[in-house]
Write a structure and sequence with these properties.
The protein is of the alpha+beta class. The protein has helices at about 5-15, 30-35, 45-50, 60-65, 100-105, 110-120, 120-135, 145-160, 160-165, 180-190, 210-215, 225-240, 245-250, 255-265, 285-290, 315, 320-325, 365-380, and strands spanning about 25, 35-40, 55, 70-75, 80-85, 195-200, 210, 270-275, 275-280, 300, 335-340, 340-350, 355-360, 390-395. The protein is about 40% helix and about 15% strand.
Length: about 400
Amino acid sequence: METTDRTHALRFRLAGQSLGERSPKSELVAVAGALAVQNTPPGSAGQALHARLAGLTPRGLKAEVETGRRLVQLWAMRGAPHLVPVEDAAVYTTGLLPDGEEACLHFIHGATDHLARFGLGAVEAVEYTCEALPGALDGRQLSKDELGVALAEEVGRRLPRRLRGAWTEPDGLGSNTYGQSVVRYALYVVSLHGVLCIASEPRGNARFALAEQWLGRRLPSWDTRRARAELVRRYLRCHGPSTSAEFAAWSGTAPAFAAASWELVAGELTEVGYRDGSAWVLTEDLPTLRNPPPVRGVRLLPPHDPLLATRDRAALVPGDRARRQVWRSQGNPGVVLADGEVVALWRPSKKGNTVTIGVEGFGPLDDAVKEAITREAETLAPFRGARDARVTVTSPG
């Protein structure tokens, strides 16, 4: 069995994620389709794409979402908002759509206690919410809270009478009722039916609309098996060599669901020795894994950048302490990528028209890297809503 190592795997992933030489901005749709870019918090997708595309501007990105409508925001992997091409949306919706109660409950596992209170199954809750969605959202755009209220009212009318009293009781989660929380959980799966989208530019607060009304047409549909297989392929091009278990964690799907999706492309995979075990890569990608292109230059990657979604965190960020700093329970920083290695953290602060990028090195940073960080910060500033940028650097010792 062929083997590979950290260096080859990391460079392969960087190449697959367009983090070598920047692509021209004309490749925006192709790059977004290859990656599916998480937009948490709002604006992060633009910053991630800035790291990969030369000459991209916030105005240009906004135009593709609001005017050209070639890109759309949807809830996708792990129930998080992602920016994807309209033509590829089915990969990241249908490709994740649960195929039964176990898979559905896994995707919205936080709803378990609420569902039990009403004797509802996860699939049943999603069906109620899907049926209510057109009546709640037709012809308007609502925030998540507003949509939760409207949907809970619509679903409440459809419930058996014996359940309606508890449906409107407060559940202790903010100002929510039990019904509002149930439909909000269910919305993560409803989105995978391709009927719901985020109708706002990437830096704006999320407002939701019926996908067909926002886009002026239905999202293109794919056969379920085709979409599930293609999702595995796109994952492996960006995160291979990998395993079915890591794919499950990345996608937020149940392990059995992920394994069944993985099996759809089993004939296209080659097993390689990696990390004292086995992992898999698309056979057609073996030449690139054997000889990945070198990575040069500096990039400022935002929190939740596609690269940081890797489940092989030890390869990306060696050292337990450094990993704890990168992947926190909340308030994650961005990272500085220099010549293919994560060398620092960064956090922004904005005052007036100036954004300050505070960089914290894992080790000493040489002058060339510091100068490159400053250049990156200057082009990143508009994506942070600023005109100017300044950089502060601290390093150990």
